[in-house]
Amino acid sequence: MIGKLTGTLLEKNPPEVLLDCHGVGYEVNVPMSTFYNLPSVGERVSLLTQFIVREDAQLLYGFGTPEERQAFRELIKISGVGPRTALSILSGMGVGDLAQAITLQEAGRLVKVPGIGKKTAERLLLELKGKLGADMGGAHHHAASDAQADILQALLALGYNDKEAAAALKALPADVGVSEGIKLALKSLAK
Predict the structure, then answer these.
(1) Beta bridge partners of 18
(2) Which of 120, 121, 167, 179 could join 110 via S-S bond, C-beta 3.0 to 4.6 A?
(3) Does the pTM exceed 0.85?
(4) Tell me: the pLDDT tens digits for 75-91?
């Protein structure tokens, strides 16, 4: 319903901000990654939003980038993950880090986020696989993780399962190139 707000930033009280849009003040909850990139109070700001209607409340969530909003939307589709938990996840790790954790199936990185237990982390990894993978991080990935994502995709295309591919990736040096990494990973998988 409300997809984007542009106006003057009136208040910043994490995780909530108050945005004045032509005389109407909108209370918007934002993840910390968006909060840290907000301008000073009194400045103009634009936020992409997600409007959530519950039985007891109507809430507006705001995001600085389309990737953050898309990640939020995918997270709240998962059973047991509400908007507050999704906001907590996006506050605890960037979209690129989340995408990488999902691609490499690293539950340990998700468990570090407050409110995320082992079972929830495993459910997130399972349900977000393929929906929020290496492609979501976009420019946020550095070259090494791009190479690792490419190596992982190659191994999956060759018929290896996620666990085998992730184990082979962990054994590789961090700065390995794509073609060299694929060769090394195939050697380790052949053992």
Answers:
(1) 11, 27
(2) 121
(3) no
(4) 999 888 899 999 999 99
